[in-house]
Fold this sequence. Notes:
By secondary structure, the protein is an alpha+beta fold. The chain contains 10 helices and 8 strands. It folds into 3 domains: 61 residues, Integrase, N-terminal zinc-binding domain (Arc Repressor Mutant, subunit A); 77 residues, YebC, transcriptional regulation domain (Alpha-Beta Plaits, 2-Layer Sandwich), CATH 3.30.70.980; 73 residues, Alpha-Beta Plaits (2-Layer Sandwich).
Amino acid sequence: MSGHSKWSTIKRKKGALDAKRGKIFTRIIKEINISIKEGGSSDPDANPRLRLAIANAKGANMPKDNISRAIKKAEDKGGENYEEVSYEGYGPAGIALFVEATTDNLKRTVSNVRAIFSKYGGSLGTNGSLEFIFDRKGVFTIPLDRLDGKDMDEVEMELIDGGAEEVEKEEDFITIYTSFEDFGNMQKKLEELGIEAESQELQRIPNSTQDISLEDGKRILNIIDKFEEDDDVNSIFHNMEMTEELMESIEG
Length: 252
């Protein structure tokens, strides 16, 4: 899982999270919409998925007014309807790419995803073809300054009690990994500890990573960038090994 953590660290250093803050907000607004439409309630106490969406909105420092507007808009039965879709395929050098999207126009999204795979040296596969490569894990990202001076060793013991399989410490934040089944338990544990995560979501973590050449690695990063530029795409997961050489090329 360290490869995924390294990738997150690099994106932070590049300022990608700040640069794409608008897209993060758009993604959260879509999630609020889906959670209300599917959950049938705009009351977070009665709708766990909406409660999670609001928690992520707060974690991303989304203004309260924006959250309220998104909820009111989702309550409108004549408003936009989104659906969640995923696409699986391979990029350059045979690297597996799992693309998750939220869309109000399925034809547009599949056309764009297929075009990116084709144009940048990849190929779109059939759904289910990558299931054996990735595991769904709960991933919680917490800036260290949100621990409010709590003892890290004590916090880690509490997190393990809440279902943490692994806790990775970086310069200014920690990343917690849980099993799919313990995702809700970790949410409750963080609430109990009074710790607000920057993000809490289910991600697809590769069972193993593939080491490729620096040149191929740059081609993979390029196709990932192209997917991330698409407004419908939420997340891209891969099984490429983030080597020190590749990370240095990004930082440079």
